[in-house]
Design a protein that fits this description.
Shape: globular
Radius of gyration: 18 Å
Strand order of the largest sheet: 3-2-1-4-5-7-6
Largest sheet: 7 strands, mixed
Strand content: 15-25%
Structural class: alpha/beta
Helix content: 25-40%
CATH architecture: 3-Layer(aba) Sandwich
Order of helices and strands: EHEHEHEHEHEEEEHH
Number of domains: 1
Length: 256
Amino acid sequence: MGKLKVLDLFSGIGGFSLGLERTGGFETVAFCEIEKFPQQVLKKHWPDVPIYEDVRNVTGRQLAADGVTVDVITGGFPCQDISVAGKQAGITDETRSGLWSEIARLVSELRPRYVIVENVANLLSGPSERPGGWFGRILSDLASLGYDAEWHCIPASHVGAPHQRDRIWVIAYPSCKPMEELKVVGPGSGSWEVHGQPGRVGRKDGVAWTENKSPVLGVAHGFPDWVDRCKGLGNCVVPAVVTLVGNAILEAHPDG
């Protein structure tokens, strides 16, 4: 089986691509990131991979003209309007979290073999006046495109991080695609299975992140650089969790 080709939307500093490529079964063929500092990070580590800026302007026709073919779409779409730390304005055309619709549009145009979506765990719960409505929107959009979905909450602590950072992960694939049961294996809690029901996994602390002076930021050179690093890390998915998800897909992949 050749490597699955990834279109990495809302790329940030590349956590999705780093985690997937560590499995050996995925290759990023295009990024989409609008912020300048993350673009610099992506260009440094993936110098030959094109970066599209505004997801609203990315189309299947444009990608085809550029010679980009896609097997997997990933996206941690903006969480500001669904996070408990925000105003919880929801997933609408007027909100940043409403950019979810651009993922759905590109799924419709490109028909990838897999879609991997990440967001805050509160996506499962909100809004307060209609609990589960936001996540229902995600599942409904995927179903209308002919995609089945499986999901689970995975905290960063499951892969040894010294913090919780609980996130919902959704894996979608065409409903006609026969797949074996998805399983994710990681440290701390053995293995758990994804059956389309939200759940939590174990916790394992005490694993060192890096040998730099700061366990998270490393050594910053000047205040603006420090601010950019904080923002980039704050918006980034945890690559080790992505690797778990990627390995689960490869194990269940019918051509694997």
